[in-house]
Amino acid sequence: MYADLSSRADDDTVHFELFSSSFCGACRQTRMALNRVLQLVPGSTLTEVDVAGDPARAEALNIEHTPTTIIRDARGREVTRATGVPSLPQILVATARAREAPQTSNHLTEGARP
Prior knowledge:
The protein is built from three helices and five strands. Strand 1, helix 1 (25-40) and strand 2 form a beta-alpha-beta unit. Mean pLDDT is 84; it is low at 1-9 and 109-114. It has a five-stranded mixed sheet with strand order 2-1-3-4-5. The longest helix is centred in the N-terminal third of the chain and has 16 residues, at 25-40. The chain has 114 residues and is an alpha/beta fold.
């Protein structure tokens, strides 16, 4: 069961959805970076999805690699998607975009600059 994000549509909450796998070392690095952002950004949330445990969800969202992080605005709309291990500055820039302009969409890949 996934959280209903529509009830919080008027706030500037940012939701992170991390798609990972148990054998993925990069997933651990991504989780650590996201946990740091959770400390820095009040009200942000993190949901982790193991692609082996929920392959239908991963397939429905076109998750092709782990780690993949989807950043959603307060209404649950995807704003940014990062594949690979994003840096803390990349996540923070994407978080600001999700809070300020939820209608924009941007895809980050490993090594890309925000």
